Amino acid sequence: MSGPILVFVEHASGEADRVSLETLAFARGLASSLGGVAVEALLIGPGAELGPSLGAHGVATAHVVEDAAIAGVYAPGAWGAALASLATARGAAAVLAPGSDRGAEVLAHAAARLGLPSAANVLSVIPGDPWRLTRQRWAGSLLEDATLDGPMRLLSVAPHAVPVDERPGSPAAAIAQFSPSVSAADLAVRVTGHEAPAAGSVSLSDAKVVVGGGRGVGSAAAFSELEELADLLGGAVGVSRVVTSNGWRPHTQQVGQTGQRIAPDLYIACGISGAIQHIVGCKAAKRILAINTDPESPIMSVADFAVIGDLHAVLPAISAEIRRRRGHGQ
Length: 330
Ligand SMILES: Cc1cc2nc3c(=O)[nH]c(=O)nc-3n(C[C@H](O)[C@H](O)[C@H](O)COP(=O)(O)OP(=O)(O)OC[C@H]3O[C@@H](n4cnc5c(N)ncnc54)[C@H](O)[C@@H]3O)c2cc1C
Description:
This protein is α/β, with parallel strands linked by helices. The protein has eight helices and 16 strands. The chain has helices at about 20-35, 70, 75-90, 100-115, 225-230, 240-245, 275-280, 310-325, and strands at about 5-10, 10, 15, 40-45, 60-65, 95-100, 120-125, 130-135, 140-150, 155, 175, 210-215, 235-240, 265-270, 285-290, 305-310. Helix 3 crosses helix 4 (about 100-115) and helix 5 (about 225-230) runs parallel beside helix 8. About 40% of the residues are buried.
């Protein structure tokens, strides 16, 4: 029988994240099509307390890296090196990672380290020689049939490709400490701090209303008009990539393929043209209102409502009307 399927599991506060649990479910299905090979997990960071519970997700052994030099800080090179060396030591048949930002980054480093190809955002696998895959491209706008070959197959699993498969009462996963050796160069790129959002602010992912701003807003200062409307509606401000590239707003507010995917009840797209890379981030909104001077702008093809006009006139008028109806005057 061939080696195990090794899964990189992201976790925080003693819980595996959802996309990692989906990846374990995917691994369980793949393991049975490979003739019942074992599924093993790699947890980096204090995870020994979480490890046994992964048995309910099909994990036979959870390998835990607790060495503070690696586990205490997210360093993609070091984490990728750890994944590659464990995969080699275990003779893994396949290495899987969740299709999250971090999962994709760690897997890419592991693949480079191993000198092997990897496939991102996989939806399904038919093992054979080579493996035949279906995977998402262009943030899910296209599906691609591809093949993957090599002595060890590396792939990330597209978020929500399969549901979580938890089977209570399964045997607990065994815990094995793993101490990879990493060099100073592997730790050269690492996260040095986290910035918490301001207390009381509504997060983009939870907001029921998102007021999105693009190049048409014109300047960092003019975002005060969007903030005012977002505050009145209890919502959050989101932006296009042009806005973050111009340094008008932080990347944490970017919506799209290389930003956040949002699903508010209402997305108000102001001065945003509607490039496909932006739309993939907001297409799950229940309703889209576009405010744009250009009636031919591509955003119109996905908008439920539109105001053709200058956002600097339209937004203050909407805010003033909301305040008037609430009885607060201008
Ligand atoms: C690999 C890759 C990944 C990308 N990822 C992302 C991503 O995650 N998110 C993202 O947003 N983009 C992303 N992009 C960039 C994307 O292709 C577009 O360039 C970008 O979304 C355009 O931003 P915009 O709509 O703000 O600007 P523009 O396309 O320049 O549109 C500006 C709009 O404002 C309107 N306008 C101008 N003045 C006014 C006014 N006064 N009032 C009302 N309307 C006005 C114009 O009519 C126009 O429609 C990515 C690109 C690539 C290649």
